[in-house]
From TrEMBL:
InterPro entries in UniProt: Haem_Oase-like_multi-hlx, PqqC, PqqC-like, Thiaminase-2/PQQC
Full protein name: Pyrroloquinoline-quinone synthase
Pathway field: Cofactor biosynthesis; pyrroloquinoline quinone biosynthesis; Cofactor biosynthesis; thiamine diphosphate biosynthesis
Region (Disordered): 1-23
Gene: pqqC
Biased composition (Low complexity): 8-21
Keywords: Oxidoreductase, PQQ biosynthesis
Its biological purpose: Ring cyclization and eight-electron oxidation of 3a-(2-amino-2-carboxyethyl)-4,5-dioxo-4,5,6,7,8,9-hexahydroquinoline-7,9-dicarboxylic-acid to PQQ.
Record EC number: 1.3.3.11
Family to which this protein belongs: Belongs to the PqqC family.
Gene3D superfamilies (alphabetical): Heme oxygenase-like
Chemical reaction(s) catalysed: 6-(2-amino-2-carboxyethyl)-7,8-dioxo-1,2,3,4,7,8-hexahydroquinoline-2,4-dicarboxylate + 3 O2 = pyrroloquinoline quinone + 2 H2O2 + 2 H2O + H(+)
Amino acid sequence: MSLQTPLSSISDSNTSDSNISEKILQQPWTKEEFEANLRAQHRRYHHLHPFHQRMNAGQLNPEEVRRWVLNRFYYQQSIPLKDAAILSNCPERDIRREWISRIIDHDGRTGSEGGIEAWLKLGEAVGLEREKMLKGQAVLPGVRYAVDAYVNFCRTKPWIEAVASSLTELFGPDAIRDRLIALEKHYPWIDKAGFDYFRVRLKQAPQDASYALNLVLQRCQTVEMQQRAVEALAFKCDLLWSQLEAIERGETRPIIND
Ligand SMILES: O=C(O)c1cc(C(=O)O)c2c(n1)C(=O)C(=O)c1cc(C(=O)O)[nH]c1-2
């Protein structure tokens, strides 16, 4: 099924009578069509990026693996910030009660240290220093811009659109499963204890994705809202893609000794 009229053609249109009646007449997608349009964004997902494909084929050298882990840490650290932004924009207590668990999944609690700590362990397993990751000075500008755009999106857009942007997690588990197999097979120099992050994510992501999908399907009742949800997901796919573009290219800035 193809996507119906893109949102831009509605919002950019002038206000002639025919355009207005066209807008009024446009029926919302059925739940099934809406879900199919969301899931169709899989074709933009970052599992198709050449850098991930080379990773899965065992073709990355240790420096490239370290560059990926160090830069992706900036994404990992930013996830609780964007989830806190969603919480702060959502006036519904029931939803906040569910959503808050995402922050705890990443930030952890005493005795259950969470995803950020697990990613730091992955960093140590590939030979990165914890302090260097936490300082974040080596994060590439393209990665910083892409990830900050996600946090900013979730701060400034209606909360349901921010929820829709999290739906890349529908596609995440398959990609993470393939990556885990590839890392264990092709990168024997990495201590396997470092891969715990991915194992935990394989349990959390399907639950997160299912909750967010049902919410988006239920709350986006007009065609405009449905289209904005699909656009939010496309935006998120572009951000993940841009992140990998920057990581693949690597450091190109001049060396500044200050
Ligand atoms: O490794 C990946 O490919 C990958 C992708 C994504 C994603 O699709 O956004 C997430 C994660 N990992 C992840 O670990 C994670 O915690 C996560 C949270 C979110 C989100 O948008 O709320 N996406 C992702």
